[in-house]
Amino acid sequence: MITVNEYFDGKVKSFVINSSEGKKTVGVMEPGEYEFDTDTKEIMTVVEGNLSVYFAEDDEWEEFEKGASFDVPAKSKLKVKVEQDTAYICEYE
Amino acid sequence: MITVNEYFDGKVKSFVINSSEGKKTVGVMEPGEYEFDTDTKEIMTVVEGNLSVYFAEDDEWEEFEKGASFDVPAKSKLKVKVEQDTAYICEYE
After folding, report:
1. List of chain A residues whose C-beta atoms are within 8 Å of the C-beta of residue B30
2. Is A84's CB within 8 Å of B28's CB?
3. Which of A15, A26, A48 minimises the CB distance to B24?
4. What is the pTM (predicted TM-score) of this model?
5. Which residue of A lies nearest to B14 if distances are taken between CA atoms?
């Protein structure tokens, strides 16, 4: 059975899938600003829409469009901003 | 609120999102064989895993890997086979 996760009162939802490379999540975000805590290292890929990601070390927001990927270190905070419904895939290391 | 659709006893689930190009669905399928009925024309893109699609006119299965897209005519049947958890995005025309 495909697990559905919900965060931020259902404004972010994700499915958990098992791939040959391990667990991945396929999620969607409604417009808003969200902060996630990572456990392991994550590789996030935008598959629809547009994601702004805050990088604390540069104090800068960077835009990631459909097809773009970025890494999120383990045990860190991921702050994102979404202005349209956006879908992503997340891999865990 | 992001709508979650469930088909085939929850072996296929999808989220409905609104993009600037209209409604899209972001879905996942567990291993199995499924037949869907289309209403409008659909453009399906595999974003994770692997999808076998049956084309009745050729009586042939064709494989679509991550990144590949195919069209499904309106008012038709879409027969697919999945051997690993697979994620897709569907656009409607």
Report:
1. 1-2
2. no
3. A48
4. 0.94
5. A15
Of A18, A85, A89, the CB nearest to B17: A85
CATH superfamily assigned to domain A4-92: Jelly Rolls (2.60.120.10)
3-state SS, residue B8: helix
A85 and B48 in contact by Cβ < 8 A?
Answer: no
Distance from CA of A23 to the nearest CA of B (A): 10
Mean pLDDT of A50-65: 94
Which ipTM value was assigned to this complex?
A: 0.93
State the Cα–Cα distance between residues A32 and A11, nearest whole angstrom. Answer: 8
Instruction: Give pLDDT, residue A56.
Output: 86
pLDDT score of B21: 85
Task: Please give the CATH topology (third level) of the domain spanning B4-66+76-92.
Answer: Jelly Rolls (2.60.120)
* DSSP-assigned letter for residue B59: T
The per-residue pLDDT for A57 is 85
| CA pair distance A5, A10, nearest whole angstrom | 9
**β-pair partners for B86:** B29
Would you give the distance in Å from CA A34 to the centre of its chain?
Answer: 10
Question: Which residues partner with B3 through β-bridges?
Answer: none
Q: How many residues does chain B have?
A: 93
Tokens of B27: 């879905």
